[in-house]
Amino acid sequence: MPDELLQRAREGDRDAFAALVEPHRAELQLHCYRMLGSLQDAEDALQEALLSAWIGLSGFEGRSSVRTWLYRITTNRCLNVLRSSSRRPQHAVPLPVPAPEPSRSGEVLWLQPYPDNLLDGLPDRLPGPEARYESREAISLAFVTAVQLLPPNQRAVLLLRDVLGYRASETAELLGLTEAAVTSALARARVTMAGNVPAKAPATVDEQELAERFVAAFTAQDVDALVALMTSDAWVRMPPLPFEYQGREAAHRFFTALAAHERQIAAMVPVRANGQPAWGEYIRDPVTGGLHLIGVLVIGLSGDRIDEIVHFETTVAPYFGLPRTLSEPGE
């Protein structure tokens, strides 16, 4: 069937090309997201890559699988985005309160969450023999954030080798590099990742229980209770704002400053992002009494503690089906 679709696509049948590509679309979009850290940029890059694939279909000689050929095109499209100066500008609404001095350890201002409902469409395919990361780890916000700190070539090599499991020779062919260059880039990338991806402790409490304790402390603006739930080296981030804080003391200063000026959260609508608990945050309008969305919050878990709290702006809400307003909590 794939051979028949390929032949029809080469003859100009767009429907056949769409059917040929569709089984790989979800994983290719996730790959673009890992490369770029932004779902919006990933969608754009994938569309441009598939257009290039359609235009260049006559050049596909069948020496590799269609999947590998598509990975070559999408990876190189993402590399072009990373090497250009035309990345999507980041616009952010400033914080309405004075904030403590951030930790400034390498903010990723373009970071966006990845809805779990998009992960549901991934094919049930095991990574290649060279993979070092489990699928769940390789979609976490901590992992994607750390990948963004790698130079473009190292980023591509790490994802192709350690996430997708391509061999060194295959990766070299995909990227137009020598095997020696791939091996060198991978070694440097692994060192950087080891220093930026915290080790996760095995879960020792029920995720739902810990999430409920977090929501209770967060909505009550109980800073002491909130910080007590965090690991000693936990991160608090707010992309695209340049505010990130590491450690309980820094987090305590930040949440204390926030609680003194911001209105209390009236409702937290649960969603999931990057395989992690997440919520739409709503505050109550003092005039209408309705609830207004102010952001999307994602937490990371390690053992019986929270090791990451990331607040995103409302621009990502449509990906999660979160309405801008609610009449009552839970509507």
From TrEMBL:
GO terms for biological process: DNA-templated transcription initiation. CDD domains: Sigma70_r4. GO terms for molecular function: DNA binding; sigma factor activity. Pfam families: Sigma70_r2, Sigma70_r4_2, SnoaL_2. Gene3D superfamilies: 1.10.1740.10, 3.10.450.50, Winged helix-like DNA-binding domain superfamily/Winged helix DNA-binding domain (1.10.10.10). Residues 142-192 form the RNA polymerase sigma factor 70 region 4 type domain. The keyword Flavoprotein does not apply. Residues 20-88 form the RNA polymerase sigma-70 region domain. Residues 211-282 form the SnoaL-like domain. The keyword Phosphoprotein does not apply. Interacts transiently with the RNA polymerase catalytic core formed by RpoA, RpoB, RpoC and RpoZ (2 alpha, 1 beta, 1 beta' and 1 omega subunit) to form the RNA polymerase holoenzyme that can initiate transcription. Belongs to the sigma-70 factor family. ECF subfamily. NCBIfam families: PRK08241.1, sigma70-ECF, SigX5. This is RNA polymerase ECF family sigma subunit.
